[in-house]
Amino acid sequence: MTSSAHHIVFANEKGGTGKSTTAVHVAVALAYQGHKVAIIDLDPRQRTSYRYLENRDATMKRLNIDIPQPFYDVFDGDDLAGLQQLIERMSAGVDFLLYDTPGRDDKYARYVATRANTLVTPINDSFVDFDLIGQVDPETYKVRKLSFYAELIWDARKERARVDGNTIDWVLLRNRTQYVEAHNMKRIVAALTELSRRVGFRIIPGLSERVIYRELFPSGLTMLDKKHLGRLATSHLAARQELRELIKHLALPQSAQQLPDNDKPARSKPQLVA
């Protein structure tokens, strides 16, 4: 990964954490800020982010509208050389290249994760998801040991620092927090805070569980496409604010601009990379 693009990898070996939804919304948000953005879907079976943006293209044609759209493609190859070629092609001339990885152990997901500039791991507020990065004592809820995944990223960060002087900004994204019982949430927060000090990831707020995200998929629209969503309920406005806060806390380079309240045209042009 030698291009000037900033590589953002959304990775979690557990499914159901809102990874694809978050990846697509971040990609579109960056495009709304005027950046040139591309996204690679590394799950050729599900193709969730690819299908989301494909639906977005179809909506633009159907409604004859022009809204910010990342470049997008899916990796369905079976060798690392093919992935590297796709990365080189997709990263050419873009500011940000995002990766949506499968919710399972996958060698290609590991490859891009250990070479990311920003690694985003969405998790739900539960000890089931926490087990991905660490194990806790069943009585005290203190962290007993790192998981294999956390050790993998820890070692990758050390190797990156040794090789090129840079490191991976590992961001733990707490999605869907609103349904967690208060006492259990305190335990989770305490365990996450303890582990973040040991491993060095940042913890930021993510997206809540909302029906609107599932409803938007067929159209490919996002919470930022205000003009084309009709009248929004209060919960939808709150969802848009969550996304704004997420982008702010990611603290990506050159992405400090405020997200627009209207649909101003952005530099990124709708395009499917053949």
Strand content: 15-25%
Count every helix, treating DSSP H or I runs of 4 or more residues as helices.
9
**What is the terminal separation in angstroms?**
21 Å
| Structural class determined from secondary elements | alpha/beta
Weakly predicted, low-confidence segments: 262-274
Rg measurement, Å: 18 Å
Order of strands across the widest beta sheet?
9-8-5-1-4-2-3-10
Kindly state the percentage of residues in helix.
40-55%
Could you tell me the mean pLDDT? 86
Largest sheet: 8 strands, parallel
Please give the number of β-strands: 10
Morphology call: globular
Order of helices and strands: EHEHEHEHEHEEHEHEHHE
Pfam families: MipZ
Protein name: AAA family ATPase
Region (Disordered): 254-274
3D structure, described in words:
Helix 2 (48-63) links the parallel strand 2 (37-41) and strand 3. By secondary structure, the chain is of the alpha/beta class. It contains nine helices and ten strands. Helix 1 packs across helix 9. Helices cover 41% and strands 17% of the residues. The strands form two sheets. Strands 9-8-5-1-4-2-3-10 form an eight-stranded parallel β-sheet, with helices on both faces. Strands 6-7 form a two-stranded antiparallel sheet. 40% of the residues are buried. The two termini are 21 Å apart. Mean pLDDT is 86; it is low at 262-274. It holds the Pfam family MipZ. Residues 254-274 are annotated as: Disordered. InterPro entries: DNA_Partitioning_ATPase, MipZ, P-loop_NTPase. This is AAA family ATPase. It comes from Parasphingorhabdus flavimaris.
